[in-house]
Structure formats: structure tokens, C-alpha cells
Design the sequence.
């Protein structure tokens, strides 16, 4: 079952979706030319929002979890793409260690590790899981009838390994499934094995605003190529740095920047005849996991932020203090499945789209962030692949909509590639 | 629905299948190392035979038809592999012309062209079809509600093109789906566009015996690697050249060679306790389409070949005269679906297995050739991909059997790659 767009789709958006579907050949060529000299991240997931009048990425994760939420039918696509990625990055690799999130006890996260392990195994790698936390003790988990063992990571002669039945398992490469929010791990600094992706892709180093700066560039190139308004795939944003959420003056500046952004958005809404209430999302620039995020509709809300909201904004994962925020145009989530707001997430390996799923949420508003702590969502896998646009059919046809999602996700991926590899 | 192996599977074979499934990681690494410096054919289909005690390729087609027989569920896999192949061979390609078989009026062949066109389009190419025959007139066919137009191929300034609505469609590359049985086409000799695969892969140039010489090499490397008897995946063969099927002396030599081969096969049957009647397949060394093929169980049959069988052996497609034969160990087809003999065909694009189907035949014996002129078979697509072996399950489990098929097909593909690219 696939979601439906709740509102009457705006004609400008229809134009955009149809244009993408009608020009799929040219778009694939365009991507081919872009990837020719550009290394792609090993894997990624891209959160999209579809308001019925615009569609855009809101987060690009380079250490994606959630592989368990994908349609098992398309696992071969993930295996094939992984084979390709390994052939490029480390063709001689035989053994690999996945470094997971340090402290996760979330069963869904372990299901993700199980799915990821399966994909890597079928691409021809021996896989073990090694925790980066020095205090970690070997732990065995039973997930869906399979055993997953997480070992403590060890190091010797500049090589990490795990000890399995008294034997050392020394990998050729290390796959990070840990977003490194808490910093560049000392433990990995002097090792000689290939780290995928490079630790510099970690959140201790990445900034949302930097990602969207590159996305601006890519979105402009793409919309110039298609000759459409860039705004239809790119949310406005601004940033404020060296700030303290409890400082009156900082809040004032954020208010002014928010007023300016809202005015620009309202102009676009007027131009396209959109009757929605525009809103903004203010996020910690280095934040992940939906932490450090608030939404506002009226800039005056900013000066009146209560203690709870200020606290919510002031620290992110692993207790990092927020000193820079990104203020971003909010995109209404207008896809509805079983009366619930649904938000697409697209997965890539190398520069290939391997599938996606919807976060289907029952309790939240369409302009709230679904990827927030303690969130409960029902993952609903895409039923079709993102590779088969059908020009003979409507853009509401799921394979066509998924193709469009795959295109927008690849724009974000290209931005991330430029961001981390230059 | 998947076929079942009719006979009790021989324990040696079980050992082989289990060994392949258990060692899938190492096998994928082995393939990775082999493909590292070896260009792969753009596409191929490999006919396999599974006797329950041995499994081997019997034909490797570098201009595969039958894409319409594959499971539509796995089309994304074909699209992704095609994208990869194009990125390697001709990343700048935007337009491509498929050159089909010259004289086919077979509706299934046009369905194949339709499927192939869809795959190429979704990989981002504009596709047209151009017939190589100078007398060909533009023809429109309606296939499954889609129109297919085949244009006559034209040439100007060393570039081929087709004329579509008074516009020239000039491709960057040409995809041959014509096996060039009738010779190296003069028309293509001086063109500057990329021809995929190179015309030297055509049957005017290829010899079955040459392919199997390379297969011997690959099979030896693989079985040495797995430490098993090469015979379990490789049929014995011999050749006889400069011959005339009507010459008594030639028939005598073929008889002697056949006696020798049958003795070797019987020794293996004795060693492994196999109770089948061994047989041989004698084929025109340059033959395709199942033409120029006879099967024998007793070498004395050769001297007694009647006129009809001699005629069948003496000419192949496009009236070519047979002057060299390959005498090959026959492999019994022991897979049975709905009481019918079923033979697997595996498809590859670049060096990736994208799927396969069974030729299910109701009227033929298990030791006859199913790919013969006028044949009628029911194509039954593989229900699962060939990429997901499951070590927790039986080798009769379809994903496991398909994985093994994918492995053997890739051995034949590697042989074909060495054969055509060196």
C-alpha cells in the first residue's frame, strides 16, 4: 500500500514531477556526467518531504540505519550495488568489521545491523561487528531468530580486530555505522585499514548548513538544466553562529532572520497560489537524531521560547552544546497513509538508489519532525523500485513518484559527495 | 513455482552445491579478483544443464534474446547493472541503436526487443532499433500494447543512423542483438561509433570449442580453488575439423573420438555410482540456435547416420556449411516442472547476474536439446534472484540453487570474456 498526496497537487508541482518523469533519460545522463569524476559516499539515506507543491531533502545521513525497513524484495539491488561499491573502494577486501552506534539498545537498530550484515555477506564479505566503546563487553543478541554478536574492538600494530573464539578476526576494511557525533575517535586515528566512509563524514565534522550550501549548488545546476524554479526542490535557509540559546541578542538575530525567510517563502506561496501557513524549522547545525529541533510559524515565538524548548535546543546527542543553528523553510508533509502523515526516506549505496520506505506516523502534525527522540513510526517499505519511471502513466503512479524521490535523493547525495570528498 | 530435481541427488553433487553455498563469501572474492583486470561482455545468457550429479554450461550467448522471459520483479537489477556497464563502456552515451536479428518475425523476439529497450531507457539511454539488412523497410509492430518500430539502418560519414520523422537519430553507440552468424557485416566496418559487444564476438568468428577451451581453464582454476573434481562442473569434449559429414573417413574418426569420450565418462559414472546411460552431443562448432546438433548414446550410430540426420548436421543458420564439430559429453536434464524437463538459462549484464528462467519443455526427452529449431518451450522465470544464498537452508531451496546457477554461469561468462577480450 502506498500513501496518497492529501491535498490537490499544485499544478506547478505536477509540472515538476511530470518534467522529471518525461526527461528521465536526460536526467540519468546528467547524473552519469556528474558522477563521472565524483566519488560517492559508500551508503546514505535521504529524508525527503513532499508538500504537494515542493519536494526536497531535509536530512542526508551518511551512516544510515533502517536497512531493515526496506522491501526485502529489493535486497538483490542492495547486494549488487554493494558489490560495485566494494569493487571500487576495496576490491581485495575479504573481511570487514561494522562499527555500530556505541550505546544503542534499540531492537530496531539491531535489526538494521542484521540486514546490513546480510547485504555485505552476500556481496562476498566476512562480516563481524565491533563496538568502539572501550568499556564494551562482548554481547549476544537474538534478533528474529538470528544471533548477532557484538564484540569489543581491539587494536594491535595499527590494526583493529575482534577476538572470536580465541582467533583474531583482522578486517581489511571498517564500515562505520556510527555517526561519530561525540568526536573523531582517537582509537581509529592511527590505523592502517580502510575506513568507510572516512571519519571526516562524521557529525563531529559535518554541518547541516554546509551540506545545504552544497545542495544549493547542485539544486541550481539541476533546475537550470531542467529550466524550472529552484525553489520547487530547495528550501530556503539561513544560519546563525557563535550563539547561545539563552542570550537575548542571539534570539533577536534569529527572529530577524526568520522574519526575512518567512517573507521570502510567503512571496513564493503567493506566486504559486499556495494557501498553506509557512513555517520554519530551527535545528542545531551539527545535530542528528532529530535532537535540537524546534518548529515555528511566527518569528515572535522565538523571543518567547520557554525553558523546556530552550533546553531542547541547547544540547544534542552525547551532550554536545549547540552554538550554531540552521533556520530552514519547513516543508509540509502531505502524503497520507491510513490517515497518518508519511515521510519518504530513500537509501543509496554508491550512487545507486536501492530502495526506500515511508515513516508513517499517527500522532504528529504534518509540519512536525518525524525523526525525533522517542518517535514511534511504522516503517512502510516502498513497494516498487525507484528505477522505473513510466512515461505512459500518471505521476501519482507509485513507480513514477518513487523515481522522482530517487532523483531528489540523488541530488542530496551528490551534495553530500561534494561536501565530504570535495 | 520452481522445478524439482527428479532423481535422488548424488551425494557428490550435494557436496558440490553445499560447498558452493557454504563458501559463497570466498567465491565472491574469487570472482572479484578475476574481474579486476578482465573486461566483461556487455550482456550474455548462459544455458546450463543440471543432472543432479553434475552441473555445467552448454552454451554461452553473447547476443542474448529472451529478456522478456525474465522475472519483471528483478528488472531493477537489470537496469542497475546496465547503468554500471554504460558508465564503464560509454559514460557519455545518450543515444543507442539496437541492431536486431535480420529476419526474425518471431513475436517472442520482438517481446525481447521491447524488454531490452525498456531496460536501456531506464538506464538513461534514448533507444531506437535499426535493421542491418539493406533491403529492410521501416516496420511497425504492436507488442503487448506497445509499438515497436524497426527502421532500416543508414550510414553517412562513417556514422550509422536511422531516420525518424525526417530527423536523423545518430547514436553514440550500437548494441548488437544479432549474433552475426552470416559474417562480419561490411556495413559496420568503417564506422566510428562504439559497437557493443565488438563484432568479433559474432558467431562468424566464435567457435564453441574455443569457448570450452577457455571454460576448461576457468573450471580448473575454480575447482582447484574449491578443491573438487573439475568434472563435476565441466563436460568432456573433443573436436574434429576439416571434415565433411558425408565422408566415411571423417565419420570413422568421430566414432573413435566418441568411443574414447564415452569410456572416460563411464569411468566417472562408475567412480560416483551413477546409473545413467552416458551420451554425447555432436554440434557444429560454429552453430547457433540449436542447429547442426545430434545426440548419440552409442558411437556405432555415427557410421549409420541417415540422410536426414546428415543433412541436419551439414548446414547451420544462414546456410553455412559445417566443417568442424565439437563432440561434447551430454548432461541429462533432471529438473522437472509439471512433469516436464526444465533447463535453466542465466542472464548477465556486465559481470552481474540479473536473473534467469527455465525452458520448460513437455515433449522432449531429458537428453535432447531444448533449444532447437521450431522448439516450443514455456519460459518460467526464476522466482528469486541468484544473489542470496542462505547457508541456513537446504541446497534444494530455490535461492540456493539459483545462487549455484549464477556461480556456474559466471564461470562461463569469465571464459567468454577471456575468449573475446583475451
Sequence:
Amino acid at each position: 500500500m502506498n500513501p496518497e498526496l492529501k491535498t490537490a497537487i499544485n499544478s506547478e508541482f505536477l509540472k515538476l514531477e511530470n518534467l522529471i518523469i518525461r526527461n528521465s533519460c536526460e536526467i540519468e545522463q546528467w547524473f552519469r556526467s556528474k558522477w563521472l569524476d565524483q566519488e560517492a559516499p559508500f551508503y546514505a539515506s535521504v529524508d525527503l518531504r513532499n508538500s504537494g507543491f515542493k519536494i526536497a531533502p531535509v536530512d542526508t545521513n551518511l551512516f544510515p540505519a533502517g536497512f531493515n525497513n526496506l522491501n526485502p524484495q529489493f535486497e538483490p539491488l542492495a547486494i549488487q550495488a554493494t558489490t560495485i561499491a566494494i569493487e571500487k573502494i576495496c576490491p581485495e577486501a575479504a573481511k570487514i568489521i561494522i562499527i555500530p552506534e556505541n550505546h544503542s539498545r534499540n531492537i530496531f537498530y539491531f535489526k538494521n545491523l542484521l540486514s546490513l550484515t546480510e547485504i555485505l555477506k552476500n556481496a562476498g564479505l566476512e562480516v563481524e561487528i565491533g563496538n568502539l566503546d572501550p568499556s564494551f563487553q562482548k554481547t549476544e543478541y537474538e534478533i528474529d531468530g538470528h544471533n548477532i554478536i557484538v564484540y569489543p574492538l581491539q587494536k594491535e600494530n595499527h590494526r583493529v580486530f575482534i577476538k572470536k573464539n580465541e582467533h583474531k578476526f583482522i578486517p581489511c576494511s571498517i564500515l562505520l555505522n556510527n555517526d561519530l557525533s561525540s568526536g573523531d575517535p582517537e582509537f581509529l586515528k592511527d590505523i592502517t585499514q580502510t575506513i568507510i566512509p572516512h571519519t571526516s563524514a562524521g557529525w563531529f565534522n559535518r554541518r547541516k548548513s554546509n551540506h545545504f550550501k552544497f545542495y544549493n549548488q547542485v539544486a541550481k545546476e539541476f533546475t537550470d538544466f531542467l529550466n524550472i524554479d529552484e525553489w520547487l526542490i530547495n528550501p530556503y535557509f539561513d544560519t546563525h553562529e557563535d550563539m547561545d540559546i539563552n542570550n537575548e541578542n542571539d534570539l533577536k538575530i534569529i527572529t530577524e532572520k526568520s522574519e526575512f525567510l518567512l517573507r521570502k517563502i510567503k512571496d513564493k506561496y503567493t506566486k504559486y497560489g499556495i494557501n498553506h501557513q509557512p513555517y520554519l524549522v530551527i535545528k542545531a547545525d551539527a545535530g542528528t537524531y532529530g535532537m535540537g529541533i524546534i518548529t515555528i510559524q511566527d518569528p515572535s515565538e522565538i523571543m518567547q521560547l520557554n525553558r523546556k524548548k530552550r533546553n531542547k535546543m541547547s544540547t544534542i546527542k552525547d551532550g554536545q552544546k549547540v552554538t550554531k543553528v540552521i533556520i530552514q523553510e519547513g516543508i509540509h508533509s502531505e502524503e497520507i497513509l491510513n490517515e497518518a502523515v508519511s515521510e519518504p526516506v530513500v537509501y543509496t549505496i554508491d550512487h545507486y538508489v536501492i530502495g526506500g520506505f515511508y515513516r508513517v506516523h499517527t500522532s504528529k502534525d504534518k509540519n512536525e519532525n518525524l525523526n525525533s527522540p522517542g518517535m514511534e513510526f511504522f516503517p512502510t517499505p516502498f513497494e516498487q523500485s525507484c528505477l522505473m519511471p513510466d512515461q505512459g502513466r500518471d505521476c501519482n503512479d507509485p513507480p513514477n513518484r518513487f523515481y522522482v524521490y530517487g532523483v531528489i535523493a540523488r541530488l542530496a547525495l551528490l551534495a553530500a559527495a561534494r561536501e565530504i570528498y570535495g
About this structure: Chain B has three domains: 1-62+206-235+331-422, 71-201, 237-330. The interface with chain A takes residues 24-29, 31-33, 35-36, 73-77, 79-81, 83-84, 86-87, 91-92, 94, 121-126, 352, 385, 387-389 of chain B (CB under 8 Å). The CA atoms of residues 240 and 254 of chain B lie 7 Å apart.
